[in-house]
Amino acid sequence: MDPVTSGILIVTALFVLMAIGTPIAFALGSVALAALVMNRGMIELTYFGETFFGSLASFGFVAIPMFILMGAAVASSPTGRDLYRSLDLWLGRVPGGLAISNIGACSIFAALSGSSPATSAAIGKLGIPEMRKRGYPDGVAAGCVAAGGTLGILIPPSVTMIVYGISTETSIGRLFIAGALPGVMLAVLFMAWTLIACQLAGGYHTPNPVSEAAERLKENVRENVDQNLKALIRVLPFLVVVTCILFALYGGVATPSEAAGAGAFLCLVLAILVYRMWRLKPLTTIMRDALRESVMIMLIIACAEIFAYALSSLFITQTVAGAIADLEVNRWVLMAIINLFLLVAGFFLPPVAVIVMTAPILLPIILAANFDPYWFAVILTINLEIGLITPPVGLNLFIIKGIAPDIALRDILLGSLPYALCMVLGIILLCFFPGIATWLPDLIMGTGG
């Protein structure tokens, strides 16, 4: 069977399995194993275990569960609540300010947790009910949190950037820096659209900061300010830890794995000291959540590696890469084709799976077209962010639906789509001004790559 026909059959089988609800890791692994056995015989069963465990035998992958543990310590504590309250203190009085507070809280929480689902869940549990209570349309309330949560895979430290760095053998520290300014740019674009959406809906003036006792705090503004400032003070140690981790990475003081381990330990200690989470139950919850997400990601990575191995062994990868490389088109047309491919892949597959399967294939093509690999990492990540708020997978959409089950999924989707267009605008801006992604890494780490 020729590589093109094999590729079509494999991709079709993969989509069928996902359509009937098979977990993505099992779908990838079973399709890959079946394709290998059918084409190369039962001997492939001998190599399956070796390939599976060998794909995870990289010390760099230690950073992933450590950063996830750090994020779990933050997400399981009231840090999101305190962050949200303190931002609402400053932004809650302007029209649309509460929605902007949610996006700002998502941006900062994304840096603390490095996880899009955790960001959407932590901020959404607080922000969506409060916005709806103050008269914001359901679409605006749900959309701004769903979109803000996507920043978790772009703003450093990012687990997906770690996976990209290991898959392409590029500097993880440089990838982190490359994602910083684009992350801020997207947050600003999200805020700009939120203001426009609120004005189109009539504008929302929210004079009272978030509080469970709104009437009492209305009579005592000083107490309200004190509570919010105390909340900000409780968040600051976590921000200091993240800043120190990034400084250690950028300054070459520690490897990503070492920095992640130190960050996980410090955030766990801070959660215990600041929020008095020393009982067994909250600590067990943190460890359980971290273990569950780590195993899920590592299983996806291992099965995606087997899937990529199957595609390579059957010469499907080489055929596709050769066809793309042989396209006699302008390099920006080539980039547009790659963006379209990544966008469609992000609709169906989680970011980690897309990166593991496609980054090693696309990187040589990107380099041959004279594009910067770190700039491309940002472009790839934003495409995958769009997939988090678009069907059929749209993980953040379903998280928001779980938080606010009485909001129709249609309203959540319609409220999120303008933010997806903001991300498309962000990709266009990065194409016209690549320095948004490359200037800061070059400034801090030099131009050597």
Automatic annotation (TrEMBL):
<comment type="subunit">
    <text>The complex comprises the extracytoplasmic solute receptor protein and the two transmembrane proteins.</text>
</comment>
<dbReference type="GO" id="GO:0022857">
    <property type="term" value="F:transmembrane transporter activity"/>
</dbReference>
<feature type="transmembrane region" description="Helical">
    <location>
        <begin position="231"/>
        <end position="253"/>
    </location>
</feature>
<keyword id="KW-1133">Transmembrane helix</keyword>
<comment type="similarity">
    <text>Belongs to the TRAP transporter large permease family.</text>
</comment>
<feature type="domain" description="TRAP C4-dicarboxylate transport system permease DctM subunit">
    <location>
        <begin position="12"/>
        <end position="436"/>
    </location>
</feature>
<feature type="transmembrane region" description="Helical">
    <location>
        <begin position="94"/>
        <end position="114"/>
    </location>
</feature>
<keyword id="KW-1003">Cell membrane</keyword>
<feature type="transmembrane region" description="Helical">
    <location>
        <begin position="175"/>
        <end position="196"/>
    </location>
</feature>
<keyword id="KW-0813">Transport</keyword>
<keyword id="KW-0812">Transmembrane</keyword>
<feature type="transmembrane region" description="Helical">
    <location>
        <begin position="259"/>
        <end position="278"/>
    </location>
</feature>
<feature type="transmembrane region" description="Helical">
    <location>
        <begin position="377"/>
        <end position="400"/>
    </location>
</feature>
<feature type="transmembrane region" description="Helical">
    <location>
        <begin position="332"/>
        <end position="349"/>
    </location>
</feature>
<dbReference type="InterPro" id="IPR004681">
    <property type="entry name" value="TRAP_DctM"/>
</dbReference>
<feature type="transmembrane region" description="Helical">
    <location>
        <begin position="51"/>
        <end position="74"/>
    </location>
</feature>
<protein>
    <recommendedName>
        <fullName>TRAP transporter large permease protein</fullName>
    </recommendedName>
</protein>
<feature type="transmembrane region" description="Helical">
    <location>
        <begin position="412"/>
        <end position="440"/>
    </location>
</feature>
<feature type="transmembrane region" description="Helical">
    <location>
        <begin position="290"/>
        <end position="312"/>
    </location>
</feature>
<feature type="transmembrane region" description="Helical">
    <location>
        <begin position="6"/>
        <end position="39"/>
    </location>
</feature>
<dbReference type="Pfam" id="PF06808">
    <property type="entry name" value="DctM"/>
</dbReference>
<comment type="function">
    <text>Part of the tripartite ATP-independent periplasmic (TRAP) transport system.</text>
</comment>
<dbReference type="GO" id="GO:0005886">
    <property type="term" value="C:plasma membrane"/>
</dbReference>
<keyword id="KW-0997">Cell inner membrane</keyword>
<keyword id="KW-0472">Membrane</keyword>
<dbReference type="InterPro" id="IPR010656">
    <property type="entry name" value="DctM"/>
</dbReference>
